Model the fold of this input.
Amino acid sequence: MKFGTKVIHAGVHPDPSTGAIMTPIYQTSTYVQDAPGKHKGFEYARSQNPTRKVLEENVAALENGRYGICFASGLAAMDAVVKTLKTGDEVLAVNDLYGGSYRLLRRVYEQFGIESRFVDMTKADELEAYITNKTKILWVETPTNPMLNVVDIAAIAKIAKARRIKLVVDNTFASPFLQTPLNLGADVVLHSATKYLGGHSDVVMGVLVTKSKALADKFYFIQNASGAVPGPQDCFLVLRGIKTLHLRVQRSCENAKAIANFLIKHPRVSKVYYPGFKDHPSHKVAKKQMRAFGGMVSFDFKSNSFATAKKVLRRTKLFSLAESLGGVESLIGHPASMTHASIPKEERMKVGLTDSLIRLSVGVEDVQDLIADLEQAMSKI
Ligand code: P1T
Done:
């Protein structure tokens, strides 16, 4: 099946009792058993839910994996991955990643003796030097949040395999329409389904996908044992959102390209971070591993001033000032004070995440209107 067919049909079947074409929302906490241990595969809704099961099968198919495991948020999904480690193990993570992911590794897991180090993974050939015999997970985001660096998944996967380390790729920014990391050698894919999968800014959810039965069993165990599961209504909403994933992401990518081209010509703009530009340091890798360059664009000002950024952040009308991304509506954000506020300033500055950096999540509106909105917001700065 091709991608546009999978989003609608993979794992989805008409309801056997009524023929309902849409997956029902099984709003139940438990299931009646015929006799102790004699049931229809569903015992208790933390452990199994039919709406969730359909979504898990659907996302697994989109990522070309075998197992999908849903969690109450993207961070709950990440938490489940880190919970497979033990004291003394170490995570080697990309040095530019979502602030909440950084916070989970640093502020939660370091107190249990699971240390993390953050390195520039765009230089795959230098990665080997950072690996120790404690390193158990390589944690990659690509494109990264918010600097839009692109990591060569196949190159990192080769190193991970040789050293018997698990490679986890947070595929939230790309979505499975643009890249499928399991095909490139990753062991686990993570999504904040809150973003492109859901696509309508109405759900918080996370998903893990893997081909490995051994890893899937660990994740199912943690899903049930820790209990950070999504509700059935949210599973329904993400299933519905996914049906148009390819159309939405395609349009966002086209719009983002036009906006990046507008911004790069703007007299007040110093830098535009967009992997679709030929002079982006990882453009070649992006071209090789992604179908298109994504719907996210970050940019900075020649003034390097927070005051300038603040003016723009206040003035846009169609771009709403908000955290999150990947919805049909365009959002504008200030990573330093919003999504990445939990990263110390010295760490942020090392990757170029300044106080004047603005991040755009480009939606599916008419791009002329989006450009006009940015033009008016940036006209008097
Ligand atoms: O918000 P949640 O569903 O828990 O997902 C966390 C998460 C994980 N990975 C990436 C790459 C993310 O961007 C996020 C959440 N990010 C935002 C809320 C944001 O605005 O960047």
DSSP finds twelve helices and twelve strands in the chain. The radius of gyration is 21 Å.
